[in-house]
Every structure is written in structure tokens, then in C-alpha cells.
Design goal:
With 84 residues, the protein is an alpha+beta fold. The chain is built from four helices and three strands; from the N terminus they run βααββαα. Antitoxin component of a type II toxin-antitoxin (TA) system.
Length: 84
């Protein structure tokens, strides 16, 4: 997957070619030589953001039974409260 880089100025002058380039891979858009933005196809964006983010969603899958998980214990210390 090739990564294409455009300066902000060249991106503004060649939006069509940048859109074509992002079909092959991400397009970095730089401001003053530093990466500032990334242009992706919608499919690539969805692939990156369509991830399970909480444990409840992860436990739905049968493979979750193989995940080693041991929650740590909690020591709760009780103390008397002075209401005076």
C-alpha cells in the first residue's frame, strides 16, 4: 500500500489526483512539511473505525472464552464514622 504525500498547496491545486491516489493507499497532506491530515477512501475509513470498543461487545464471540482474564481483588477497609 503506497503512501502519497501532498503539500497543502499542491493538494488544493490537485484534489482530483489526490482522490485517485487514495484509492491505492492513504494520502498525507502536510502543512509546513509536517503531516496534518490524511485522506482515505470511505471503505478504508470504515475498516479502521469499525472495531469493537468495549468488553461487552467482545464477549459476544465464542473466541472470548479463550481470553485470559483475572480481575484483581479489592480490599475494602471499613472504618467507624464520627457523626459528632
Amino acid at each position: 500500500m503506497p503512501i502519497t504525500t501532498y503539500s497543502s498547496r499542491s493538494f488544493n491545486q490537485a484534489v482530483s489526483s489526490a482522490k485517485k491516489a487514495c484509492e491505492e493507499g492513504p494520502v498525507y497532506i502536510t502543512d509546513r512539511g509536517k503531516p496534518a491530515h490524511v485522506l482515505l477512501t470511505y471503505e478504508a475509513y470504515k475498516k479502521l473505525t469499525d472495531t469493537r470498543r468495549n468488553i461487552q461487545d467482545s464477549l459476544v464471540y465464542p473466541e472470548a472464552a479463550e481470553i485470559a482474564f483475572e480481575p484483581g481483588g479489592i480490599d475494602i477497609e471499613f472504618r467507624d464514622i464520627d457523626f459528632s
